[in-house]
Amino acid sequence: MTDTRTIKTACRGCHGGCGVIAHVNNGTVVKVEGDPDSPISYGSLCSKGLAATQLTYHPDRIVHPMKRSGKNWSRISWDEALGTIAEKFQKISDEHGPEHIVVGQGTGRDYESHLYRFANLLGTPNVLTAGHMCYVSRVASTLVTAGNLPICDYRGGPKCIVMWGCNPQWSNPDEYKGVDFWRAYKAGAKLICIDPRKGFVARKADLWLQIRPGTDAALALGFHRVILDEELYDKDITENYINGWEAFKERVQEYTLDQIQDITWVDKELIQRAARMYARTKPACIHWGVPTEQTNNCADYTRLATGLMAATGNLDVPGGNVLYVNPPTRTVAEFARHKELSREQRAKALGGDRFKLGARVAFINPKKAWDSILTGEPYQLKAGLLCGTNPVVSRANAREAYEALKALDFLVVIDHFMTPTADLADIFLPAATWLEQNHVADNWKRHGFVLARQKCCEVGEAWQDHKIFMELGKRMGQPWWDTVEEALDYLLEPSGLTWEEFKAKGHLQGEMVYHKYKERGFSTPTGKLELYSTVLEKWGFDPLPKYTEVAESPYSKPEVAKDYPYILNAGLRTPTFFHTANRNQTWLREIRPDPIVEIHPLTASKEGIAEGQWVWLESPRGRVRERAKLNDQIPPRVVVAEHGWWYPEIKETGHGWDISNINLLTDNAYETLDPAIGATNLRVCLCRISPVSEERTRAAG
User: pLDDT band at residue 129, thresholds of 50, 70 and 90?
Assistant: First the structure.
């Protein structure tokens, strides 16, 4: 007898949230499609979501716990795996202190609440995430500026959209789905695109500002200069709701449009046109992406962009950038019990004394973790638990990350596959895919929704991440619930719904209220939007945002530029891969079989490089190879390279992590990082390029 049914759930193939209908036959998901009833994706589904069954049922997927002995792996039970980890962690905690254990994640699979709860109850302040350079950095920067993260209100009917370093239709980043942007654009919104590369969005734009990589904060200052000089700001807001407006005006006056033009490579008349269009076309919103955050200007750019929203009257208004109201569920912070980590333990966070803005949102900088392991300063991390992350490929100065993780006394990795990072582990724990879990999805986002992710199947002995943290925590005496679903009941308690009731409902949405600051101010120390930040001033940072030249550029390092004359803009997105994931999924790899570096035809001709040829990319830190794609819509002085590459088809240990891994070229030296948040300059460094001979290509591959 055939059991055929459909289950509505929510994707997590990338940043997640798109509604999915899973078709299940006898417990096996045979097809997925977009759910037209989804309130945020309206039936759309990208290539990563459509290929979900290839992830869930991949023949190379590891679906039972594993233990490494030397170079060999053997299958073990969950009981042995959890018992071994609990014993090792407890011994380290008793002998050295729980801060000697690092708990880490990547972009996450909606398990942040459970990971942080485990870490807090364990007693370690050392949680290692991608947050220092991706998303949480904007949360931290806007918390001290406006008390919350402003999000584009695409459903509110923006008349102007500034797409700043982002391609939402390929990357579906965080709160956003590409379909919302596209609907607003098709409804007639004017479009300003800021990007070094003329991609799909730039080709549709009314104005395209081809910016030099890493100079976004300078361009934001240029917008402010035009708006100030031409008095395009909202005088009621600037006089009554912004802290430090007069001081901020003086800071902006330090930058002329001629200077901004020289810094950014954007013609000053184009800057004027864009600033006027944004300020005069109401309502308008700014949608920014991680390229603005993966530089040493991370916090300052975010504060400047938030200032543009506020000064022009586009903050918390329909169609502008809004501070969404969360649905009535427990927050990640409450579930994670952040307040229960003692002040004494929190003070032990690696780098907390330096990267204070990062410490405020409870994560550490990777460089501090690697230094702790390799040098023992200020103390030595002994063990780690990494969930859904592949730092050997995804973090700057990848060779240092590799050596550090290799040197840990004990490492646990939770993942779907044996990745280059998992190769270094002592214990491998098999994680369930998003088709195999129950969860209140998107509960960490700030778009006003939570979604029901329903379990559609089971594969092998894989557990969803939430269960892994729960069961390991219970082994260590932590208070958890008996089942995942009981924990979800607790998350949903303020709504009055149980998990079973929420599943039937499908989603919850916070009741939106606009202009909230007029009634209760902003959640900052002054109650105003702080362009002059009292928090940063208290910590010893410049309270006013500014532009700082990128740490490794033709202007800051002219002596390096003599040998490495090109600007490497790393991190080119594709619609197929999610950072280091998906390269073993047949459909997706067929679309993009090789790593791509885009090179201007004039540059390619100068360097003797032909279309499709393998190319060496070199920086002062290393060398990798990618395949050339000629593109006359990037500056000749810039090369644009994909990130996240390793080769699952190479079965030997390491899986070719050092062949095309662009992060062998990037730097994580302290002087290159954002001083407040610790963001890494992943997007900007100096490089040189050259063709690869066929013989050397075969040797490298």
Answer: very high
